[in-house]
Write a structure and sequence with these properties.
single chain, 446 residues, alpha/beta, Urease, subunit C, domain 1, TIM Barrel, 2 domains, 8-stranded mixed beta sheet, 4-stranded parallel beta sheet, 15 helices, 16 strands, 39% helix, globular, binds guanine
Length: 446
């Protein structure tokens, strides 16, 4: 009889595609020494009782309480780590002003390793406590702080993807916060890749460095071209912002005569390892480009309310089979919880569907067929994120990483409640207090 490192006994929900969630009322999630789900055994299988018995004897059985359920850990596809101290600030300002007056001055402080350590340790712990087992982070321009973020991911056992932010365009970046030149930016990016490699030695969840041009306005063509080459040389993921706002789109058209997606593509920055944040203003040509290239979108529904200038058409991109996951976009988004973004994604999509202007007749008011369901949003928070990062996580399934969360319902059920109802309540009501445990690669991080 196989001995597992941990056997979780209880009920679970896992998305199996955009529209379907599998519920199992009585299962054994058997996790091996490497932190992979070796088997998922259901109550009607022959060895179900024997596995429980062996796990009891070896002290590796973790039995869930009746009100608890197992879910896959969430993947946050867009977090600006150095913006964490500003979460909830200045969201009434336009993107350009918010960047200039609030964001760049804060990010510039991450030259200081001590400050970076303080902020990043708290952020990584907070995201884990909220059920986020994988996060794709923008760091800052300075590698001192970026390496502190890598260390925090490693020490708290979060699956981290971290990018050194590149911004070298003197016309769109302040003197105090900019890469000195394209050459310096490229060297620093390469240094970061090597430093992360060193820190990863003997770690069970290595951090992945990410090529990170901030967005078209803050980068010169020279740096974009060099970053495309580095991504190819090291076969690394790429992240940036794309078609987030009218201002950004207008800038691309004015300076390059093209949309930003087309420019990023020309420089080799749209690949099947790219994750582009926001995309509220992507047009059909951009969407086709994303699909053809295998680019993922980080849908950041809370942030988009403030800076997106439109509602991201999540249903449309999902229907076209473009990879889409969810992002908190700290601090364009004010909340570190992917659950909150699941809820906002649903709510925003309903407003897109129905329309918002009561003076327009109901049949013309909205973009019908745009509403997404809780299942669609759960899919984005798990499988959509995993696909965007090409990871075998986000599902409770044999061969997948044991990146999991154990949650309980917030309110009593007052009688019988079916599994579909429980699922919806969990999606709508879970806060950090209802997340009892979080496991990454088989190790409890909460
Ligand atoms: N939301 C958001 N958009 C950006 N575009 C360029 N930088 C940023 C940023 O930090 N946040």
């Amino acid at each position: 009889m196989m001995i597992y490192k941990t056997v979780l006994k209880g009920r679970y929900y896992t998305a199996i595609d955009q529209n379907q969630v599998d519920y199992q009322p009585d299962s054994l999630v058997c996790i091996d020494d490497g932190g992979t789900i070796a088997r998922v055994v259901l109550a009607d299988e022959d060895d179900y009782t024997t596995i429980i018995h062996t796990a009891e004897q070896t002290g590796t059985l973790v039995s869930l309480a009746d009100d608890q359920v197992i879910l896959p850990g969430f993947i946050d596809l867009h977090v600006h780590a150095p913006q964490w101290p500003n979460a909830g600030l200045a969201l009434d300002r336009p993107l350009y002003e918010w960047l200039e007056e609030y964001t760049f001055p804060l990010e510039a402080k991450f030259k200081d390793a001590k400050y970076a350590h303080l902020v990043y340790d708290n952020l990584v712990e907070t995201l884990l406590a909220n059920g986020t087992t994988t996060a794709l982070y923008f760091g800052s321009v300075d590698n001192t702080g970026n390496l502190e973020l890598v260390k925090s991911c490693l020490s708290h056992h979060q699956r981290g993807f971290v990018g050194k932010v590149v911004m070298d365009n003197p016309e769109q970046t302040p003197d105090y916060y900019r890469d000195e030149s394209a050459d310096v930016a490229l060297n620093e990016t390469e240094n970061f890749i090597h430093e992360v490699e060193k820190l990863n030695t003997d770690q069970s969840i290595p951090v992945t460095p990410v090529i990170t041009p901030r967005f078209l306005p803050s980068c010169t063509d020279e740096v974009l071209s060099g970053l495309g080459k580095l991504a190819n040389k090291y076969n690394l993921p790429i992240q940036s912002h794309c078609s987030e706002s009218d201002w950004e789109n207008g800038y691309a058209l004015e300076t390059h005569g093209k949309r930003d997606a087309a420019v990023l593509d020309e420089f080799g920055l749209l690949t099947d390892k790219s994750v582009m944040a926001h995309g509220t203003l992507l047009n059909d040509e951009d969407i086709k480009r994303f699909k053809d290239r295998g680019v993922g979108v980080a849908h950041c529904p809370i942030s988009n309310v403030y800076f997106g200038n439109a509602v991201f058409p999540a249903k449309k991109l999902l229907s076209e089979e473009v990879k889409v996951g969810l992002g908190t976009d700290i601090s364009g988004g004010y909340d570190p919880s992917v659950y909150q973004n699941i809820r906002q994604a649903i709510m925003s999509s309903r407003m897109l569907d129905e329309g918002v202007d009561s003076e327009i007749s109901p049949d013309l008011r909205g973009k019908h067929q745009a509403a997404i369901t809780a299942k669609n949003a759960f899919y984005m928070a798990t499988i959509g994120g995993a696909k965007s990062l090409n990871l075998t996580t986000g599902q409770i399934k044999q061969g997948y990483a044991a990146d999991l969360q154990i949650v309980h319902e917030k309110y009593p059920t007052f009688g019988h409640q079916g599994p579909e109802d429980t699922f919806e309540k969990i999606m709508y009501q879970t806060t950090v207090s209802e997340i009892d445990h979080v496991m990454t690669q088989g190790v409890f991080a909460k």
